[in-house]
Amino acid sequence: MAMISPSMLSADFGNIQRDTEMLNKSQCDWIHLDVMDGVFVPNLTFGFPMMEAIARHARKPLDVHLMIVQPEKFIERLSDVGAYVVSVHYEACPHLHRVLQAIRAKGMKAGVVLNPHTPVSVLEDIIQDCDLVMLMSVNPGYGGQAFIPHTLEKIKRLVELRERTGSRCLIEVDGGVNRSTGKKLMEAGADVLVAGTAVFGAADPVEEISILKQL
Ligand code: DX5
Ligand code: ZN
User: Fold this and answer.
1) 108 CA distance to ligand 1 middle (Å)
2) What is the pLDDT of residue 171?
3) What is the arithmetic mean of pLDDT over 194-211?
4) N or C: which end of the chain has fewer CB within 10 A?
């Protein structure tokens, strides 16, 4: 059964308490928070005030996806917010090992995210230090983009690498996930599915989450 992490990027920011409470009542496992800086990705989203507002109401673990340069600057504050897992981009971290250690030192789970063009093989010498690997199935920056099918091949390679190295990381996939792509991702070996548009664009988001969970 998939773990589901709905992305608040597609929530109604004018009704953030209502939408967070809706997720509390749903079968979702985590709540996905997309932080963008306008440098690493061509868009801005939100920072600490919004994350704190969501955290005040959330009764599910917070899954923070940092699409920013120099993510190490914010690890301590993310721990204060109560983040459960913090994921940083491989492409944004020249000292990735140090960043992962710093996240774990604050008692949080450490994740690494790969952009669509970054091969799984770059994880060979770091996967042992990852609690989670997230594969981007769109180019990060916006919700509502089309799923890149090549992600399915990358999942299979990541499953092989995880087996070969004895890593116990979870495999999360982010971007363009819906009932149809979600099913294929589950079959390929994904453990956690992020879904923004598919959840918040549905007539009944709680029902949609339960459908995604049963894939
Ligand atoms: C994209 C973000 C995603 C986004 C997913 O840069 O990292 O988490 O919210 O949105 P959908 O599910 O609409 O592709
Ligand atoms: Zn994301």
Assistant:
1) 22
2) 98
3) 98
4) N
**CA of residue 151 to ligand 1 center, whole Å:** 15
Q: Alpha-carbon distance 206 to 21, whole Å?
A: 11
The per-residue pLDDT of the chain, averaged, comes to 98
Query: Phi and psi dihedrals of 145, rounded to 5?
Result: -95, 165
Q: What is the reported pLDDT for 84?
A: 99
From ligand 2's centre to the CA of 189, what distance in Å? 19
Q: Which active-site residues does the annotation give?
A: 34, 174
Residues 6+ apart with CB under 8 A from 7: 32, 33, 34, 143, 174, 194, 195, 196, 199
- To 5 degrees, how large is the angle CA 161–CA 165–CA 168? 90
Q: What is the DSSP letter of 166?
A: T
Strand duo 31-36 + 192-195: pairing: unpaired
| Mean pLDDT in residue range 160-183 | 98
Q: For residues 91-96, give the mean pLDDT.
A: 98
Percent of the chain predicted with pLDDT > 70: 100
Three-state SS at 150 = coil
pLDDT given for residue 188 in this prediction: 98
Closest CA to 209 of 59, 24, 50: 24
Lining ligand 1 with CB less than 6 A are 7, 9-10, 32, 34, 65, 138, 140-145, 174-177, 194-198
Are the C-beta atoms of residues 122 and 158 closer than 8 Å to each other? no
Q: How far does the chain reach from its first CA to its final CA, in angstroms?
A: 7
